Amino acid sequence: MATGKTYEESAENNDHLIRSSDSQHPANLIPELCRKFWTLGWVTGTGGGTSIRDNDLVYLAPSGVQKELMKSEDIYVLALSQQTDPKKRIYLRSPPSLKPSQCTPLFIAAFTKRNAGCCIHTHSQWAVLITLLLEQLPSNATLFEINNIEQIKGFGRGYQKQGNLGYHDTLRIPVIENTPHEEDLTESLEEAMDKYPDTYAVLVRRHGIYVWGETVHKAKTQCESLDYLFQLAIEMKKLGLSWLSDIA
Amino acid sequence: MATGKTYEESAENNDHLIRSSDSQHPANLIPELCRKFWTLGWVTGTGGGTSIRDNDLVYLAPSGVQKELMKSEDIYVLALSQQTDPKKRIYLRSPPSLKPSQCTPLFIAAFTKRNAGCCIHTHSQWAVLITLLLEQLPSNATLFEINNIEQIKGFGRGYQKQGNLGYHDTLRIPVIENTPHEEDLTESLEEAMDKYPDTYAVLVRRHGIYVWGETVHKAKTQCESLDYLFQLAIEMKKLGLSWLSDIA
Amino acid sequence: MATGKTYEESAENNDHLIRSSDSQHPANLIPELCRKFWTLGWVTGTGGGTSIRDNDLVYLAPSGVQKELMKSEDIYVLALSQQTDPKKRIYLRSPPSLKPSQCTPLFIAAFTKRNAGCCIHTHSQWAVLITLLLEQLPSNATLFEINNIEQIKGFGRGYQKQGNLGYHDTLRIPVIENTPHEEDLTESLEEAMDKYPDTYAVLVRRHGIYVWGETVHKAKTQCESLDYLFQLAIEMKKLGLSWLSDIA
Amino acid sequence: MATGKTYEESAENNDHLIRSSDSQHPANLIPELCRKFWTLGWVTGTGGGTSIRDNDLVYLAPSGVQKELMKSEDIYVLALSQQTDPKKRIYLRSPPSLKPSQCTPLFIAAFTKRNAGCCIHTHSQWAVLITLLLEQLPSNATLFEINNIEQIKGFGRGYQKQGNLGYHDTLRIPVIENTPHEEDLTESLEEAMDKYPDTYAVLVRRHGIYVWGETVHKAKTQCESLDYLFQLAIEMKKLGLSWLSDIA
Prior knowledge:
Four copies of one chain form a homotetramer. By secondary structure, chain A is of the alpha+beta class. The first copy, chain A, folds into two domains: about 10-100, 3-Layer(aba) Sandwich (L-fuculose-1-phosphate Aldolase), CATH 3.40.225.10; about 125-248, Class II aldolase/adducin N-terminal domain (L-fuculose-1-phosphate Aldolase, 3-Layer(aba) Sandwich), CATH 3.40.225.10. Helices cover about 30% and strands about 15% of the residues of chain A. Chain A has five helices and eight strands. Chain A has an eight-stranded mixed β-sheet, with helices on both faces. In chain A, a hairpin with a 3-residue loop joins strand 7 and strand 8 (about 210-215). The first copy, chain A, is globular, with a radius of gyration of 18 Å. In chain A, about 50% of the residues are buried. Chains in contact: A-B, A-D, B-C, C-D. At the A-B interface, helix 3 and helix 5 of A face helix 5 of B. Chains A, B, C, D: Keywords: Amino-acid biosynthesis, Cytoplasm, Lyase, Metal-binding, Methionine biosynthesis, Zinc. Chains A, B, C, D: One of its GO terms (molecular function) is zinc ion binding. Chains A, B, C, D: Belongs to the aldolase class II family. MtnB subfamily. Chains A, B, C, D: Catalyzes the dehydration of methylthioribulose-1-phosphate (MTRu-1-P) into 2,3-diketo-5-methylthiopentyl-1-phosphate (DK-MTP-1-P).
């Protein structure tokens, strides 16, 4: 707030919050990320979303837009500290004629419970297929597990822990069941975070995935690494190869 | 018609109809969409097409051009109100040395019967494979059905209805049989629209798909969501997973 | 030759033959096409090639270059009328420190035997896989056949014939066996052209495909349509679907 | 060193080593290559790496960066002749706040043992899947072999040998076992180089591949050709086709 105004004082819907010539400003970065995610097939047909937190401020892609065409002016902004009532969301800046994303409470969960700096939600087909394959299993249908693949080293060891997973560590991503209304996922997402405190991602059955990280860099590269592992796991399944192995 | 001329008065093949510095003008938007569709594999080898309606005016991609190289000057324009004889198409603007698309009567069906603002025709391989798989079934070979996948929420509930499909709703896309001449599909396309009044798309066996929407935004995002679901459904088939499930 | 010089008179390796500000000049078009083909996976790792004929002049991509980085200065030029001895190729223009493509006699066969204006050679994996699948068959291993797919209409009916194939027509692409030296394919390519005078393409077993057309437009769109059909045919094979059907 | 300074004399971390207006300078070329490799899925989620040698100087991509966003300023530089103690790496230029790549000793092995000018490390899924399929075999699990595919001609015959492999030659790529710490691969990589002196690549089980060549051109096109062959081999496996055949 270089202007010295409080949010409430600044006129015209706080548009200064999303205007910056810095390419790394969240309001510029979210559209750039979404263009990239569209080419990766993660946010097809207005699906998915992305949010960045800068201290108390949260920047959010809106609902229902073509993600590869998103502009800074389409970004919602809210202050975490003002969200005292989960039923009554308060926005500092709302783009005219757009709707806020139903993902908002899920992004907020990653920010408040895990101190994340960025959270990405994709409808990646590989993620959906993993949840469908797990659904067929008699047991363990709520956990994706893979080990002994180098790309696993792309993940941090967990919340407030130093360093990354090792090659022999098993990466575990919990799966929660989908709900008709996306905001209703919040409770089970938070439960999964509590049950698997070190995970940086939660799969949503027949829907997609939420991935976060301390920074945009970490959220994005963890999301890429996961998608790589999901695609690899689907190909392994087609070729009759196991996701888990007991290499020393 | 800001110039105040009627179409008939304006000289030189009504080229003013396709000249605009507005990137959202249909004559600029159709080439941009077609470039994008070419990269998605939807309009390979001059296949497929796109049309946008602006009130009474209809803008159409021509036949037989490389879709990723299309220019505004290649666009046909007609007035819906002038198409009284389906055997005698009247164009306000015809590009020199090109041929009108055989898809024209099918696009017009979406505009007149469903009040669509945009109609997209693709030769997507996923769409073709879905129709080939359905053809193998003893029953139900003329309807693609899928449910309990989040991306289904990318579709409107139907013609003149408010809101979108829900997660548990079954998306149904009718399939019509292909004909040697594309314009001969019109009758069966219209029959499918009558039989499934809420559908926003019709699959054409061994050929591709027609998808429409009230706006360019809706037609394009519904087309993307469908292609996502078709690709997912093919992968599900390879992995032995069912398209329909009875999750509550 | 707007300068009025003969090829022999013009100095400096006839570089004027490959210098033009016209984006449609063959020396500009070949690099643009090769960039596009590289993104399609057709000319990976210096594989494949492209040639355009303008009356008596033939423009050729060189051997061994990274196709997505090719420049006009890399283009070879020869005059068809000067190629009287197939063992002694005469070039009007040779780029310094490059080697002519081994595909040259094959491109020339398409130009002289079929009056083609453009010939494209790809190492498309779909094309290679088709030839491998055919090799497993006890009979008919030298002919790819598919019918009743709309994209077949993307092909002309044949040499010196008017119009395109119809939906119910069977597209037939002959397969020739690969040889250690690419120029040694010339004889069997010409035999395949004689045996299938209406084909616009010849598959080379375990190698790729040659596709031509009367114009750059036709060669490129036929090459795209074929690649679409090959990819579709591989997916059909994985899903247990037949390439030929007897729909009326 | 056009400035006439020795490395030690030049101030400010030898930044002049990575500043050049020449697009072919290693410090410009590595970021351009990495952008391309990211789109090919080779360096997803900060995985993989690339190094170029210019006489005694070695330019290296750093650890842990988003490869499609890399800049010249992110490049490490070292002098081969100064690396007398493998436990104590000496860098001429280290980017502030980045870490050197664990791949460094592996790149150096290619430079010193094989006089390579460029070495590329990818996490290509096709490469990983090949190593997983080989792992299932009772024998020969440490060697990928394929023959009678044209793309094999994209590889040189071997270290200090003239010419390229022929169509009937068998391409052999050794596989080494992965280790928790990437630098610990060095010994087995060097052993594989000794056992297969003519190979230009070594697969790393469940990890990826290292590919080199005398020049950037050769390393890159060999890496592309290998990835093509790995993808083809996976598709062949799905279709029940053998990687080796005894065509004369």
